[in-house]
Amino acid sequence: MFSIRSIFRPQQLRPSSLFSLHSSYSSSTSASAASIQADRTIREGPRNDWTRREIKDVYDSPLLDLLFHGALVHRHAQNFREVQQCTLLSIKTGGCSEDCSYCPQSSRYSTGVKAQKLMTKEDVMEAAKKAKEAGSTRFCMGAAWRDTVGRKTNFNQILDYVKEIRDMGIEVCCTLGMLEKQQAQELKKAGLTAYNHNLDTSREYYPHIITTRTYDERLKTLEYVREAGINVCSGGIIGLGEAEEDRVGLLHTLATLPTHPESVPINALLAVKGTPLQDQKPVEIWEMIRMIATARIVMPKAMVRLSAGRVRFSMPEQALCFLAGANSIFTGEKLLTTPNNDFDADQLMFKVLGLIPKAPSFPEDEERSFESENCQEAVSSSG
Ligand code: SF4
């Protein structure tokens, strides 16, 4: 039987001197919530009994203090130099029946995005091969669908794509809308590593953004994915016009799931002309840092992904995000339909910042997911 402390084992780069630095720092200042909760996370490991108030207090901590403690937790829970590179390809673009207010692929808005059919196997494999050659260790396929129900032919094609890409030795992820239990099981059998299904925002603000499916339907899909043994990738978007309380609400929902998502993408809205959110003002780097550092403290073992919107941030700004706890990015020319960072600029950034690409890992190769154990331990120890 593992204890939480033994399971929450730090990586080889754990600098023990940080403990003493941190202790002396804390004792010489009045401790912020970020400091108190980071200390607790470092001592106890991941937990899923967070109260919304606790997360709000962390989120509201003085920014540099929050950044510092996000960085401390990051160094204890992760290899701080490793950054996962994922490539996201839109395999079926546009013509979506949903009304997500931020999305240029909804058929309800005039954004110039044309509806296309599912990409052929040849084209998808070519893109996956290129992504692997460019250093990506995860290939994510996105389809602009409400769900996959009634799309048997397309779904079977995607199962085939998943198998082939997994055989290339890289992780495979899909984002295809809502799933049924059976479909999640079939994706697992095909070798899917992770399934992305974002919650987008807080439960309270969600109806202002999407009306065509509910928050609970989203959570149900996450449940099916988790039950099937597929890693959960779920995060949200900031800059939708939400209040800071909604950002806290999103993190609270994710951090109190029975098991934390293995990946938590934090997106900054890229407002697209023609969508209802076209006039939203751009997210500032300080807002991203606040979200990332809070996510790192409350979900220490998750891969926190600096996702859409990264293209607007300079290298020094991205460096602050990595320092705060981000350890995953999307690479490739486009993020579905919006622009992404240049490949050469990313290569240079890795070199300048001393980052190293994270190697792929496959659930079937691991004894058990550390995070799963941690959260289950937390549940039993609090019950
Ligand atoms: S976010 Fe996904 S579900 Fe929503 S409109 Fe865009 S493609 Fe459709």
Automatic annotation (TrEMBL):
Keywords for this protein: 2Fe-2S, 4Fe-4S, Biotin biosynthesis, Iron, Iron-sulfur, Metal-binding, S-adenosyl-L-methionine, Transferase
Location of the Radical SAM core domain: 81-310
Residue ranges of the region described as Disordered: 361-383
Signal peptide from the UniProt entry: none
Cofactor(s) this protein cannot do without: [2Fe-2S] cluster; [4Fe-4S] cluster
Pathway info: Cofactor biosynthesis; biotin biosynthesis; biotin from 7,8-diaminononanoate: step 2/2
Biased composition (Polar residues): 372-383
Assigned EC number: 2.8.1.6
HAMAP family reported in the protein's UniProt record: BioB (MF_01694)
Family: Belongs to the radical SAM superfamily. Biotin synthase family.
Name of the protein described by the UniProt record: biotin synthase
Organism of provenance: Hevea brasiliensis (Para rubber tree)
